[in-house]
Design goal:
homodimer, mainly alpha, Arc Repressor Mutant, subunit A, 3-stranded antiparallel beta sheet, 7 helices, 3 strands, disordered C terminus, DNA binding (chains A, B), transcription (chains A, B), WH_DNA-bd_sf (chains A, B), DNA-binding (chains A, B)
Chain lengths: 126, 126
Amino acid sequence: MSKQSLSIVNPADAGEACCAPLVREPLGETEAAELAPLFKALADPVRLRLLSLIACHEGGEACVCDLTAAFDVTAPTISHHLKVLKQAGLIDSERRGTWVYYWLNPGVLDRLAATLGPRATAASAS
Amino acid sequence: MSKQSLSIVNPADAGEACCAPLVREPLGETEAAELAPLFKALADPVRLRLLSLIACHEGGEACVCDLTAAFDVTAPTISHHLKVLKQAGLIDSERRGTWVYYWLNPGVLDRLAATLGPRATAASAS
């Protein structure tokens, strides 16, 4: 059976905010390969909470000293999870004196959200 | 350092569609534990494309016979990935005669999208 025989909903025919891109047209190999490592980085409860704590922290950034108290895991484990989040491109960091500070790369979460669900921007513009 | 010393943005103070729940308030342990396995199921390019193909297929459902042609992997591998997606609760299935048909559990993707990005519903209602 060829790819052509699959019945695909044309994105142009879909309502503005009715469907996620994932639901409107088949995800390409390249995009799937780009997205999978981002979801893998999110596939851990500690990393999800770390990401959220960093995002919620005053000024949108946090140092490791702000994060470790919320978890029952060791500081090296927190550091490992931060490294995984950074390597995936979800967060970025900078050393200032003694501490390394972390912040979210906000565009990345928006991209993931927009892939999975209806676009908030399109809905608010209608 | 206690949890109390973390500076948290009050969700009530945040703009309606400005931020994802993840960014408005720290993700709880329970929610993080519920979300992580869903992201883990999405953390594979073949599974992402399978999910998308099922969602885009006519009538919002597809049988394995509709899916295998799009991939360079074997039918048992496709079946394995479908099982992972189903066990995570992202898709559901039903046998009808020879074939098993699969469809998306749409609420699950919406929940993930709403966790990561601004809510489309809130934005359109404003």
